[in-house]
Amino acid sequence: MGGNLSMPDPVARPDAFYRFSVRCDRAMNARLEAAARAAAVSVTAFVQRHFETILDEPADDTGFSPDVFAREHGISPMAARLWNAMRRASDSVGVVSGGVRDFAIAAKVSAGLGSDCLAELVSADLVRMIARPGAGRGGTYRIAKVA
């Protein structure tokens, strides 16, 4: 009737990894090996890189992919979406003013998580606070230029 409550959930463990096997013919294997050589990585790393992207949110009309951006900068995909919403609203030098709640809504992030995502962006040096938000007014932020 129920499991041992003293044992942690094996899926929640940070060291829990799962292995998948894929089958391919010789021609596909040769193509994978050639592509991996061109990318200067092992075939395993090449396939792993692809595997990590198959469930990514698709890129928007500007080519921005929240999942790819999040992996590149060590942040959550929600924070990446918030960064993109702020970037789109910023001026030519990357300055934007407004409420975190409004940015979160534009980014399709829960308004309650907007502050957490902003803190993540500040910690990752992707956003710098210029003026703190106050009663009835939003803050002013500088968005980092990212290639």
Secondary structure layout:
Elements: H1 26-38, H2 43-53, H3 66-73, H4 77-89, E1 95-98, H5 100-106, H6 114-123, E2 127-131, E3 139-143
Antiparallel strand pairs: 1-3, 2-3
Helix pairs in contact: 1-2, 3-4, 4-6
Q: What would your notes on this structure say?
A:
By secondary structure, the protein is mainly alpha-helical. 42% of the residues lie in helices and 10% in strands. It is built from six helices and three strands; from the N terminus they run H-H-H-H-E-H-H-E-E. Strands 1-3-2 form a three-stranded antiparallel sheet. Helix 1 packs across helix 2 (43-53) and helix 4 packs across helix 6 (114-123). The chain is elongated and about 65 Å long. 18% of the residues are buried. The mean pLDDT is 85.
Pick out its properties.
147 residues, mainly alpha, 6 helices, 3 strands
Q: Numbering strands along the chain, what is their spatial order in the largest sheet? A: 1-3-2
* Helix percent band: 40-55%
Shape: elongated
Q: Structural class per helix/strand content?
A: mainly alpha
Helix count equals: 6
> How many DSSP E strands?
3
User: Which band does the percent of strand residues land in?
Assistant: 5-15%
Unreliable residue runs = none
Calculate Rg over CA atoms: 20 Å
Order of helices and strands: HHHHEHHEE
- What is the mean pLDDT? 85
Intertermini distance: 54 Å
Biggest sheet character: 3 strands, antiparallel
